[in-house]
Amino acid sequence: MDSSDELNFFSPETIENLTEGFLNILQPEVITVNKSLSDLTAHQEIMLASINSKRTQFEDTAQTQDIQALLIQIPNYKQKILNIQKTITSIDRRMKKLQVRANKLKELRVLRETNSKKELEKRIREEQILEAKPSK
Q1: What digits encode the pLDDT tens for the residues 11-64?
Q2: pLDDT at position 3
Q3: CA separation for the pair 97, 88 (Å, rounded)
Q4: InterPro entries in the record, alphabetically (predicted)?
């Protein structure tokens, strides 16, 4: 018996009744499974939205913690800046004192050179006067 003989064995009405019965048996389960699948998909979308929301909150929390860590460092940086400012002020003050001292020393050197030149000129004049006077 081949498959065409088997189909002829059942009448078309019987085949239609069997098909209808088969569909009537399975259709409620298929509808239930389809509804459950739709519900599951909806719950999955809700869960994904919730997970994304939590992830965003976590990222925001992590960023907030980073910002808080930076804010905690501000007093340390402020103190470092104040120390640097004090050091710069001290160096500036010492530099000005050294410049004043250097100027005074320069003036003193110029004064000594001038006095030395005058003293030398005075001696030369005295020697010239002594040389110019005839001995008696």
Answers
A1: 889 888 888 888 888 888 989 999 999 999 999 999 999 999 988 888 888 888
A2: 55
A3: 14
A4: Snapin/Pallidin/Snn1
**CA distances (Å), origin 127, targets 20, 115, 131, 135:** 152, 18, 6, 14
Distance CA 26, CA 11 (A): 23
CA–CA distance, 76 with 89 (Å, rounded to integer): 20
- H or E segment to which residue 71 belongs: helix 12-132
Q: What is the dihedral of CA 114, 117, 123, 129, to 10 degrees?
A: -100
How confident is residue 105, by pLDDT bands cut at 50, 70 and 90?
very high
Instruction: Name, in order, each residue with C-beta under 8 angstroms of 7's C-beta and a sequence gap of 6 or more.
Output: 15
Domain span at residue 37? 3-132
Number of structural domains in the chain:
1
Phi, psi of 10 (to 5 degrees): -100, 145
CA Rg value for the chain: 56
Contacts of 15 (CB under 8 A, 6+ apart): 7
* Chain Cα centroid distance, residue 60: 16
